[in-house]
């Protein structure tokens, strides 16, 4: 139940929870990329040295023939991007000047671009009714 708070997401009184949406996002990834038994996981905080205190958290899970990249951002609303590649050698590239500009295209890239098999993003809005 939502109580007395109205949600304006077009879902009526209750919207799906962020956990449900994140679970659906994970299961939408190609099973061949998620099916590896072991992955080497690393965490990296990528600070913005150019200005205000803003960071990205990059979680990289490397398998024998693929990599999963999760990038959590606190720029604006909380958001997460997931990118699956078909190589254990893919990397994340961040250009803070572009990322913080009015046209941020190219500010956040996984390289090599042709290794990307799947990508998705989820933005957590500030208001939650459920």
From TrEMBL:
Give a yes or no for keyword Metal-binding in this entry.
no
The entry's localization annotation reads: Lysosome membrane
| Keywords noted in UniProt | Glycoprotein, Lysosome, Membrane, Signal, Transmembrane, Transmembrane helix
Q: What is its main location?
A: membrane
Q: Which domain of life is it from?
A: Eukaryota
Pfam short name (any one): NCU-G1
Please name the InterPro entries in this protein's record. NCU-G1
Its quaternary structure?
Answer: Interacts (via lumenal domain) with lysosomal protein MFSD1; the interaction starts while both proteins are still in the endoplasmic reticulum and is required for stabilization of MFSD1 in lysosomes but has no direct effect on its targeting to lysosomes or transporter activity.
Family, per entry: Belongs to the GLMP family.
Which residue windows are transmembrane per the record?
Answer: 19-35
Name of the protein described by the UniProt record: Glycosylated lysosomal membrane protein
Under the cellular component aspect of Gene Ontology, which terms does the record hold?
lysosomal membrane
The record describes its membrane topology as: Single-pass type I membrane protein
Q: What does this protein do?
A: Required to protect lysosomal transporter MFSD1 from lysosomal proteolysis and for MFSD1 lysosomal localization.
Task: State whether keyword Membrane applies.
Answer: yes
